[in-house]
Fold this sequence. Notes:
The complex is a heterotrimer. Chain A is mainly α. Chain A has 15 helices and two strands. Helices cover 65% and strands 1% of the residues of chain A. Chain A is globular. In chain A, 54% of the residues are buried. The model of chain A is unreliable at 417-443 (pLDDT under 50). The N and C termini of chain B lie far apart (47 Å). The model of chain B has no long low-confidence stretch (mean pLDDT 82). In chain B, 12% of the residues are buried. Chain C has a single domain (9-253), classed as Alpha-Beta Plaits. Chain C is built from six helices and twelve strands. Chain C has helices at 23-31, 115-119, 161-173, 187-191, 208-213, 248-253, and strands at 9-14, 51-56, 66-71, 94-96, 103-105, 126-127, 154-155, 197-201, 215-216, 222-223, 228-229, 241-244. Chain C is globular, with a radius of gyration of 19 Å. Chains in contact: A-B, A-C. Chains A and C meet through α5 and α6 of A and β2, α2 and β6 of C. The complex binds iron/sulfur cluster (2 copies). The site of one iron/sulfur cluster (SF4) has 13 residues of chain C, from α2.
Amino acid sequence: MDSALIPEGVKRCPTWQFIIWIGVVGAVMMWGVFAILLVYIKGLNQTNMNNAYGFALWIWADLTVIALGGGAFFTGFLRYIIGKDELKHIINYAVLIGFICYSSALLILGFDVGQPLRAWFIFWHANVHSMLTEVAFCLTCYFGVLCIEYLPLALENRQIDKVPFFHHLSHNMHEIMAVFAATGAFLSFFHQGSLGGVPGVMFGRPFGFREGVLIWPWTFFLFTWSAAAGGPCFTILITKITEKAVRKKLVKDNVIELLAKISGWMLVGYMVAKIIDTWYWAAFTAPSKGFTLMDFYANNPGSVYGIWILIAEIGVCGVLPALILITDKGRKNRIALFLAVLLAVLGVCLNRWVMVLQVLAVPVLTFENWAQYLPSWQEIATTILPVAYGIIMISLSYRYLPVFPQERELNPIEAPVSQTQEQLPEPETPPAGAEPEPSPSGS
Amino acid sequence: MFPFSFEWIWDMGHMVFHGGLWYALSIMGLGLTYCIIKAAVDTAKGKGGYHH
Amino acid sequence: MEKENSKKFGMVIDLDKCTGCGSCMVACMAENNIPFREDETDKLLSVSWMHVYRLTNVKPFPDTEECYLPRPCQHCEGHHGHSPCVSVCPATATDYDMDTGIVSQIYTRCFGCRYCMAACPYHVRQFNWWDPLWPDGMEKSLNPNVSVRMRGVVEKCSFCIHRYQLAKDQAYMEGRREIEEDEYQTACTQACPAGAITFGDLNNPKHAVYQMVKPDKKNGGKPKNPKAFRLLERLGTNAKVYYLSSREWVRRAGDNYLKTEGQAKHA
Ligand code: SF4
Ligand code: SF4
């Protein structure tokens, strides 16, 4: 039915199967949309947030998707600025994942604020000294960059590409992609960092507060760094899951391994910095405010915020995956690699959780207690929504766009198999991928 | 956001912040404009077009 | 920047006098049109600008002692007006006024991101989770000088700034430039039957608040009176609400200390 839209030379599942799949995921998404409507109509009382937990699941989700979407800027940075050419085989997917993450973040921010109709005040009445202002500006701009980066891929759809203008546009955009990638890296550096600055500058909250340089607390740099380390891990993780889901290899091992290796070393660096930061904070910053490390981790109901959380974040989900990823053996072993990227991603999620929720949970006034919070179903539904939305975006893009340049080479189709399969073009046609062939007359 | 809003002051913070912002926005805008114009010119010249 | 004649309104609360009756809370609710709901059991969802805490020394009988601690907004100055909450607000919806030292909140500007709530260590800032609704007829008793707030915005104690405006207007009409100490007093101050709350200009040596705590300007406003303390002094919030207590354990409860830090450290 939709075979005319499917890229040449690749096999996709039958249309009915695809429609059912989208329908199921779409239903989950509609559940989230329903919850959003409730929140919009009835207000934030639909959540289980309270005056102690002004930031909760949503802000965590925001920080997390942005960190994980960091794969787009960092892969782009490696590919276009550093010149790691192999990464061109995965950059499309990294950009797509980044696009999904950032659009989700903007969506969540859209209903997280108490007065959504005034959300534009953050731009109009900007307080340039607030970390959140910097986040809002850079986030929106960077989302623009991601749209620019995603657009040429969308234009490469077989039918759209037939229109000469779009074909040229996509080609020209690829030509100067390095400029956009550099802008993206610049913006990402600042908004990832500013998100780290959000807890870091709160000098009234000893769990989050950090010293730093000039106006930037150490968390600023740690967040950027962890996004650059964890983001590509998320890209790899999603690539692996996609490969499992469609039961074929989409990206060659050397590409994945290169990205894994770089992430591994980034993770090593991040872990060293994080451990120094934690030590300095525990030994100097917090005591200067009258807190010991264990004040932050003990005596809370159910040990939800026990010291286990620090061990999990730094040890199990930090040092361990870093060690796996920097060893050749670890990267070559499929299970170890999968485990490592999964742990690294969990580590980033955990870090963001701690830096949002634990900051608020720790009692600061001596006569107050730990604050407790469990998200409401509306919060959960709205947080699952971006996942469903992401799956739909990936499914659509995978089906209709040449996202994986190596797919054809890795999964050759022997002969026109079914009636839906069109006649294959001459076999030597290069795969339509991230780098379209320059137009014949251009040479 | 603009110098005419009343909370605006010409201090270091505003200059650095908005300098960075408008710098990034201009690069994006100029880049995109260049691509669109060049695509239009290429199309008008009837360059190759779709090559499959 | 702070000018020559700028004021620094502050409060001194004598915890030896406070009986925990809650009159200040009630007066504040009435004065500032604070919304309430039928079910106010979950205090983390309700709005109260002035909140009275109960402290205990956690000692077994017969050594058990209690103390009540009213907590309005501390109107933190931080360093040069860099209050924990003001500096973080992305929309400039809250401001530190260098002329009065009052941390204001612009309800129609706030868009409810709640960053300021996260930044305030005193849990002073509260969110309007619901639209305000008053029982039939009660809206007639609302204070016309204070705007009511819509759902989705943050609010907090304003040191009854509308009373300052009114006092200044009055003085202007009478051809005066300055207002007297008793012309601007907050509702809680006037309502306290024990006279535990004192309000005035901390920059003015003639005012009672100044004489009670003797703020040390060179030392970040720390009180020279050994009986006086501020909540969470060590965080550097530079609050303008001072507390007085003759009991060491109460003063110590005002801040966090390491176990190794001696009792004397605080005095
Ligand atoms: S007490 Fe809280 S709300 Fe009041 S000025 Fe200080 S930080 Fe801001
Ligand atoms: S909730 Fe309102 S006052 Fe508080 S930081 Fe956000 S916009 Fe500013």
